[in-house]
Design goal:
The chain is α/β, with parallel strands linked by helices. The chain folds into two domains: 2-125 and 304-353, NAD(P)-binding Rossmann-like Domain (Rossmann fold), CATH 3.40.50.720; 140-303, Dihydrodipicolinate Reductase, domain 2. It is built from 14 helices and 15 strands. It has helices spanning 2-15, 29-41, 57-64, 84-92, 103-110, 128-140, 161-170, 213-221, 235-244, 249-252, 255-264, 266-276, 303-320, 335-345, and strands spanning 22-26, 47-51, 70-72, 96-98, 117-119, 146-154, 175-179, 182-186, 193-196, 203-208, 225-233, 280-287, 293-300, 326-328, 351-353. The strands form four sheets. A seven-stranded mixed β-sheet has the order 9-10-11-6-12-13-15. The protein has a four-stranded parallel β-sheet with strand order 3-4-5-14, sandwiched between helices. Strands 1-2 form a two-stranded parallel ribbon. Strand 9 and strand 10 form a beta hairpin. The longest helix is centred in the C-terminal third of the chain and has 18 residues, at 303-320. The radius of gyration is 19 Å and the shape is globular. The two termini are 24 Å apart.
Length: 354
């Protein structure tokens, strides 16, 4: 996701004739060299390597010093509770955004006091999905009684073992939903529903899964009920995730073990991805108490690419100064910023009913 974000920032900055110098932080130079070569093949120019360890405060301080923007894409975010990189950015007064999909970590980030702009949980979902929810609520024009998110990817959406290991970790995390105005924890990968994602994608089975969009958007939009579901294809991936829940929670919560399992499965993952493609689809439904409904649907051909596209759109909005100081969730951004970001996300969409 990080390389895709870099490519899109480079593309958007060139389109706006903004001079941007790019840098990628990480623990290993070899990983950077491989990413830099792939980006060079796609026309991205010189990129600086910055040694970076999320668990080392001194390296974070050195890495963010003098930057105009920091974009944090180094997941999985599961089981982290301290927003160390954000704290370093706030100390250095550097605008910041991340793709955090871990509720506890996003809550800790949102609670920080900031005199520079920062956006928490701002990828494609969560992120652009929250902007769609805000747009749908605005079009509804009356109090939101129910908010329902549905997401679908073909295979891993091109993201490979990273998204698989993150999903494994989410299977031991209760899904936060809102019921009659109250936050409730439910068993993940239950309460299957079928959602129609639009032309070329159609109806897909989706299952409850934790997502920061649920509480952040329910609170921002005053929704009485809210939930989020996810599904994938081929169907055996859904069956696999369901079977994984039978494992002891202590094993599911072992980040190293889940990453190792995903890495071990990489040949199968890559083969399936090559066969089914990497489509990413989102559907947002908002309903009023009297039954009026607004439904927005968006899909892209490749999850990895559109995550970078959406994340870069948020980053560019920060660079333009379109977001006021403070730590924000996407659903609370002003309408003008929301429309500009979604205008970028629309580019190349294969379904855009938004």
């Amino acid at each position: 996701m990080g390389a895709s974000t870099v490519r899109w920032i480079d593309k958007l900055a060139k389109a706006e004739q903004l001079p941007v110098e790019l840098a990628i932080g990480g623990r290993r130079r070899a990983s950077f060299d491989a990413a830099a070569q792939r980006l060079a093949d796609k026309g991205v120019g010189a990129i600086e390597f910055v040694p970076l360890d999320l668990d080392d405060a001194a390296s974070l301080e050195a890495a963010v010093a003098g930057r105009a923007l920091v974009v944090h894409t180094a997941g999985p975010f599961q089981q982290r509770t301290d927003p160390t990189l954000l704290k370093a950015c706030l100390q250095a007064k550097v605008p910041y955004c991340d793709v955090c999909d871990e509720l506890e970590l996003s809550r800790a980030a949102r609670a920080l006091t900031s005199d520079v702009p920062a956006v928490i949980s701002c990828g494609i979902w969560p992120g652009a999905s929250a902007l769609l929810a805000a747009r749908a609520a605005e079009r509804l024009g009356k109090p939101v009684d129910d908010l329902e998110f549905s997401f679908f990817t073909s295979g891993t959406g091109g993201a490979g073992p990273t998204i698989v290991s993150a999903t494994f970790l989410l299977l031991c995390t209760p899904a936060q939903v809102y019921v009659d105005g109250n936050s409730v924890e439910k068993e993940p990968w239950t309460e299957k529903r079928t959602a129609d994602f639009g032309p070329g994608i159609g109806a897909r089975d989706v299952y409850l899964l934790d997502n920061p969009d649920v509480p952040t958007c329910a609170e921002a939009l005053n929704a009485r009920s809210a939930s989020s579901r996810f599904g994938t294809a081929p169907a055996f991936w859904n069956d696999l995730f369901g079977a994984m829940k039978l494992l002891p929670r202590s094993l599911l919560a072992d980040k190293g073990a889940m990453q190792a399992l995903a890495d071990f499965s990489m040949p199968i993952i890559r083969t399936v991805d090559a066969l089914v493609g990497g489509v990413n689809a989102m559907r947002v439904d908002v309903r009023s108490a009297d039954g009026d409904t607004v439904t927005l649907r968006v899909a892209h051909r490749d999850l990895e690419d559109c995550v970078g596209q959406a994340t870069a759109a948020f980053g560019m909005e920060l660079l333009r100064g379109g977001i006021e100081p403070g730590c924000w969730y996407p659903a609370k951004l002003p309408k003008d910023a929301r429309d500009r970001i979604l205008g970028v996300v629309e580019e190349g969409a294969i379904v855009w009913e938004a």
